[in-house]
Structures are given as C-alpha cells and as structure tokens.
Design a protein that fits this description.
Elements (H helix, E strand, L loop, with lengths): L3 H21 L4 H8 L3 H8 L7 H11 L4 H29 L9 H4 L2 H12 L7 H16 L6 H20 L4 H24 L3 H18 L2 H11 L1 H5 L3 H15 L5 H17 L3 H16 L14 H14 L3 H14 L5 H17 L3 H12 L8 H18 L3 H11 L2
Helix pairs in contact: 1-5, 2-3, 4-5, 7-8, 7-9, 8-10, 9-10, 10-11, 10-12, 11-12, 12-14, 14-15, 15-16, 15-17, 16-17, 17-18, 17-19, 18-19, 19-20, 19-21, 20-21, 20-22, 21-22
Length: 425
C-alpha cells in the first residue's frame, strides 16, 4: 500500500524541480506566469507542492525550459503514483463491500464513493488540527470523481451526498487551519456548493441553485481559485440560458473565460467556449458561435487525455453535440445530423443526460429533412428514461420538438405517440 507521504514528497520534489529550471532560466514567478499562461500564484503553489495542475501546465513548462520531457515525465510518474493509491484504496473498499459492508448508494455510479466516506470522516476527526495534504487530496479527488460521473446518475441520488459533504467541510472551516489548508478547504467547499447548485437546478429549483452558485463563488474568491470561479460562473450561466436570457448567460460566460485565462485547463476553457457558442447561436449570431466552436476544438486538441484532477468533464463527444446544436439553430440540419450522429457514437451508454439531449436535437434535424419516422424513433428513445433522470433542459428541448412533430406528423401514429409522451412530462 502506497504511503500518502510518498505522494506528498513526490509532489514537493516535482515542485523543486520546476523551481530549479525556472531559476536556471533567470526568471522569477511573475515572469514565468505569462509565458506558460498560468497565474503567478499557481506557479508558487506548484513549486511548494501545494497544488495539483493538469498535464498541460507541465507540457508548457517543459517547452519553455527546453527540459527535454523531464518535467512531463516527472509529472506523469506523480500521476501514476496517485492513481495507484486510489486503486489500492478503492480495492480495499471493494473488499469491505464483499465482506458484507453496505455501499453508500444503490446506484452503480455511487458505489465507488465508499472510499469518500472514509476521507470525509478522517477529515472530520482532524477538524480542529492541521489537516495533512494527503487528506485534502482525498477530499478533492472525492468531489472531482462525483462531478465527472454526474452525467450518469439521477440528480436526486446525489442530493444527500452533496448536503452531508458540504456540511462536513463547513465544520472543518469553522476550526483553526493554516492559511494554505484553509484555502484548499475553501476550494473544496466551492466545488461542493457548485455541485449542489447544479443538482438544485436540474431538480427544478432555480432559486436554490442561484443561492448555492453565489456561495460557491464566494468560496472560490476566498480560496483565490480563479479556475474554480470560472467553473462556477460557467455553470451559473445555465440558469439564464434555460430561462431564455442568452445575453445574461453570455455575460457570465465571458467573465468566466476571463477568469479562466492563465488558470483553468484547456478542457475547462474549451467547455466555456462551447457554452459561449450556444449563447451566440440563440442570439442568432451564428458567425460568433461558429468561431467559438472552432476555438473550442483547437483548445480541446491541446488538452491532455488524462483528466485525473479535472472537475470539468468535457470531451470530443460532447463538443460534437454542441457543434450539432449550433448548426441546427443556424438552419443547417444536414450538417447538424452528421455532428449529432458523431456525438452519439462517442458518448458512453451511461451518459444518459447527454445522450437524451443529443437524440432530441437529432430528431429535430431529421424532421427538418423530412425523415419523420426516424425522428420519432430518436425522440421516443430519448424520452423513455427513468423519471429521475429527466432534467429541466431535457423537458425544454422536448417541448420545442413537440411543435415540429405536431406540425409534420399529421395522422402518423408514431408522431402522435411522441406528442403524447412529451405532453406527459
């Protein structure tokens, strides 16, 4: 079993290696920051082993110092060490479950959260003392893992998880912690509050969602975590977007993009660009929407495929869905169909929410091309999901589709069935 202190030592050693290269190049932290497109505080935290950063950071530093891949290789060894520790810990949790322990949830996507309970209980037990970095690592990985799997689970199944974890972190923050640990706890609190807001919105509680997004933003500011602040703003933009206020959504997204520059990973920046493209398209500025998507694709291509420490889960499959939606709104259904089918081929079966939205868009594109029969098949497949997986955006897109089906369906029986199915939502 890997000792957590090994990971702490490896992270600190990697930070010292970065500082060695920086000093050899005659640069201070302020001078290095714009060269690698990250903030000075990020560099300072990495050099002291206090912050995890995506692979993109190490690639940029390696190129800046002509390190010949040494920094990237060292970061990959650290990532491998972290993965091994998580696999070993998860293996112990599975063994306990095999011995009769009760999993934390009936849903497969949450069974892996068994180790999360241990992390939060350990942190709670240490609540009035100096929380060790490896305990904070466990807390962060717990939240990130749930955020990454959110698209696969019903929102109600996560509600109690989020409530209890946020309460645990609030208790820790009320204790006396060194500045560095407090900032990391604030980041964790911001992530949890952001997830609570996300859940509330998908559970048709926009007022509660807005309140939690504000709490998440406050936590991100106290943590001085610009990447987290950008994530919160990007998610918050969904509320005005769903309420038919694309300009308000775009204002939040543009601020999020400004915050993300130099701090957030390429994956997060690509996700924000895709969100911006949707707002532009709703505003009928299809040229701006298209430019944002091209930039999103280029940004995503530069991202690492390893999302081990990434709270934003965004990939080529989801980007293709955004591209398809853009072309659909721009009146190009054939191009939209091609992109949406590409998205469906790349999305995983368990990503129910994304699959549903993509199928509804595909149904709309097919109707626009006179393919009513397949459109009804896609719509029916999209809407015959468990009720707890039905989120606000799904209902909105389904109701927009209803008008198309009703206008083109006539006496076609499958079309009438789709209309009845949508009316029952």
């Amino acid at each position: 079993m890997i000792d957590p202190s090994e990971i702490v030592a490896a992270r600190q050693a990697l930070g010292r290696l970065l500082a060695k290269y920086r000093k050899a190049a005659g640069l201070n932290q302020h001078q290095l920051a714009p060269r690698v497109h990250y903030g000075r505080s990020t560099i300072a935290n990495v050099e002291t082993g206090r912050q995890n950063v995506p692979r993109d950071f190490w690639v940029r530093c390696d190129q800046e110092f002509n390190a010949g891949g040494r920094l990237v290789a060292a970061s990959e060894r650290l990532d491998a060490l972290v993965r091994r520790q998580r696999e070993e810990t998860a293996g112990l949790a599975d063994a306990e479950q095999d011995d009769g322990a009760t999993p934390s949830s009936d849903h497969d996507g949450l069974v892996t959260a068994a180790v999360d309970d241990d992390a939060f209980e350990l942190a709670d037990a240490l609540g009035h003392s100096n929380i060790a970095p490896h305990v904070l690592d466990l807390l962060e990985s717990s939240v990130i893992r749930v955020a990454q799997t959110y698209s696969t689970v019903p929102p109600p199944s996560l509600f109690e998880w989020g409530r209890t974890r946020l309460a645990a972190v609030v208790t820790l923050l009320r204790g006396s912690q060194p500045v560095v640990q407090r900032r990391r706890l604030c980041s964790i609190a911001g992530q949890l509050a952001g997830l609570r807001a996300w859940l509330a919105h998908d559970m048709h509680e926009p007022v509660s969602a807005t309140s939690f997004y504000r709490v998440a933003a406050t936590a991100a500011r106290e943590a001085e975590d610009e990447a987290l602040y950008a994530w919160v703003l990007g998610n918050h933009s969904r509320i005005p977007s769903y309420e038919g206020k694309p300009r308000a959504a775009l204002t939040l997204i543009e601020e999020a993009r400004e915050r993300a520059e130099g701090y957030a990973s390429p994956v997060a920046r690509a996700w924000l660009l895709a969100q911006a493209s949707r707002a532009y398209s709703v505003l009928n500025d299809h040229a701006a929407g298209g430019r944002a998507l091209v930039q999103a694709e280029r940004t995503l291509d530069a991202a690492s495929t390893d999302a081990i420490d990434e709270i934003v889960y965004f990939d080529g499959g989801r980007l293709a869905a955004f591209v398809g939606h853009h072309h659909l709104l721009a009146g190009r259904p054939a191009v939209a169909e091609e992109q949406l089918r590409a998205s469906l081929s790349r999305l995983k079966p368990e990503q129910i929410k994304h699959l549903v939205l993509t199928r509804l868009d595909l149904a709309s594109a097919l109707i626009a091309q006179g393919e009513l029969a397949e459109a009804c098949e896609q719509a029916t497949a999209a809407l015959t999901i468990p009720a707890e997986q039905m989120i606000d955006l799904t209902v909105q897109r389904a109701r927009r589709l209803r008008g198309q089906v009703a206008a083109n369906g006539g006496r076609f029986a499958p079309a009438r069935e789709v209309v009845e199915l949508i009316d029952s939502l």
